[in-house]
Amino acid sequence: MPFRLLISLGLLCALLPLHHGAPGPDGSAPDPAHYRERVKAMFYHAYDSYLENAFPFDELRPLTCDGHDTWGSFSLTLIDALDTLLILGNVSEFQRVVEVLQDNVDFDIDVNASVFETNIRVVGGLLSAHLLSKKAGVEVEAGWPCSGPLLRMAEEAARKLLPVGNHIDVLTGKWVAQDAGIGAGVDSYFEYLVKGAILLQDKKLMAMFLEYNKAIRNYTRFDDWYLWVQMYKGTVSMPVFQSLEAYWPGLQSLIGDIDNAMRTFLNYYTVWKQFGGLPEFYNIPQGYTVEKREGYPLRPELIESAMYLYRATGDPTLLELGRDAVESIEKISKVECGFATIKDLRDHKLDNRMESFFLAETVKYLYLLFDPTNFIHNNGSTFDTVITPYGECILGAGGYIFNTEAHPIDPAALHCCQRLKEEQWEVEDLMREFYSLKRNRSKFQKKTMSSGPWEPPTRPGILLSPENHDQARERKRAKQKVPLLSCPSQPFTSKLALLGQVFLDSS
To answer: Record's family (predicted)?
Structure first.
């Protein structure tokens, strides 16, 4: 049977839902105010359960009402949930948690930690909370947003992380896994190309993504599904949909590719309606789950795409997904102590885990889907003026960029603090010129002692005019520029001694 016909049969099966959320009272789109309150109640049921039963551990185990450490013993769920508190409007709890984190979280420990997860959850959560502190009524120090205790905590955590490879042999540079797609292992890379281009106003990053996007459309897309292919041949290796791939329609909306985004979103939505959630792997030709990948750990990606697309289109179908998500999660996953991972969507068996991203992402995107006037959606009509030692800054005007853990970053803060960086560069350039001048004088003095009276140097330019100084500075930067993905030529042992480590070598 032709492959495309099998896909169509799979879609037909997917259109027979096992679970539906309730429509509005008159059959219209879901009432945003009603579901906004439902989502808020979900958050506090999970959050309070974590505080009462699991803190200071990383995560809640909802079936046994206790906690355990997962990604490094950093009270991860509390850090991950912090900016969600403000988005839900809870200023007082945000302020309390900031004090708790400053008093209790210590990164100077020897633990096994995931570099990727620690980066997106801990570093991202602290950076976002730092930038939102003033809005939450936290008393900030002089120099904010370019300095502050949460920013220093984020920097400390980041310095503990060492570069690692994912599916690449870091010694030979060869690919270990040769399947290409848009899901696990590469999803955040594509996401950050687009978001990095927007956040940093970097045209090269967007050009890179658009080039990848051509190959993705040409080799992995079939009937608005995205499959996995052999990276050198382009032949289909896995005709599956991974739940992690559901971020893709949201990413497409950021580059304005709305039509393709909606078609793909509707494909993924049919899978949700079939099971009341997205299984980790879904066999597209067969229209069913993949063995040992039947679970749904309350991931946010499809809800994330719905939020982005609703902002772009206002299509009420996207609110229906939000309604279905609320109804499904409450019906299938809610237990006395929070919300439990769904181990198997076929029979709705549960697993004893509530990942921190449920509060950081899933609930946040749901709430923002139903709250069109939230400050995160600000169109620039309101803003805050902040006076810092480096000048006047405009913050909170909107355009927030979410990291891959849904922690919002205000792009205006980068431009505000960039002034400080430029001042530092100017001081560093002056110091280099000063020491260069001292070295040159020392050389000339030695020459005078050995070969007669001193003569002025024949090479002009030791003392530069302002114009020549700027030209020399630009030449120096261009000469010192290194590829973005290169590593400094520093011994590995020196890096460990300088930065510390979060991995233990058991050998």
So the answer is: Belongs to the glycosyl hydrolase 47 family.
